[in-house]
Amino acid sequence: MKITEIRPRRKGLSALFIDGEFAMALDTQTLLEQRIDVGRELDDEELHELIVLSNERRAKEKALWLISYRSHSKKELRDKIRRTCDADAADKAVERMEELGLVNDEDFARRYAEQLLYGKRMSKRAAVYELRRKGIDRSTAEEVLEELDVDVHEQIRALIEKKYRHINDEKIRRRAVAALQRLGYGWEDIKAVLAEYADDE
User: Fold this and answer.
1) Among 65, 71, 183, 194, which is least packed by CB within 10 angstroms?
2) Cα–Cα distance list, 128 to 57, 98, 116, 141 (Å)
3) Mind listing the pLDDT tens digit for each residue in 9-40?
4) Which residue segment(s) compose the domain that 176 sits in?
5) pTM passes above 0.85
6) Helices 124-133 and 105-114, packing angle to 10 deg
7) Domain count along the chain
8) 40 and 86 both lie in a single domain
9) Do both 167 and 189 map to the same domain?
10) For residue 71, which of 139, 134, 121 has the smallest C-alpha distance?
11) Measured between alpha carbons, how far is residue 7 from residues 14, 23, 91, 99, 178 in Å?
């Protein structure tokens, strides 16, 4: 197989033409490092190695780009990288980010749990579910949430004050109860706080 043309493309890629036909788009930096020039002959093994190196570089760059915006769990990062790279490249990129200390599930879980409890005012039960969805194992999720001090009634009160001002209106009350239950709050706690508003009337 002979490389007959290398044409630059967007996003750090170059189109590789083999024997006069477009073969694939590979990472430009990888092509430069491997000294791949027009006229070079490649066998199947060399081409495969080139594809692997290109995928690994792209996966690492994608990982760095993603974590520059916000922290991610390992699972979340791996899933996002897999949209553009193969599974092996994604796994290697995540391992490398972990080695560099740029990805840490426990740190991520702690920050995200605070955001869920204090920002979105979710219940701890709902927060465990959300952390599990991000790939955090149950024991880490529960451990992190155990460290955070939250008054359940105060959380419910804050949500009602923010979104449901006319809570004694039956329709608004039903809507509030449904929303609070979706956030993981139990009926007994919701009922106790609603009783306070009934007393205010």
Assistant:
1) 65
2) 34, 23, 10, 6
3) 888 899 989 998 898 889 999 998 888 888 88
4) 152-200
5) no
6) 140
7) 3
8) yes
9) yes
10) 134
11) 5, 11, 29, 35, 57
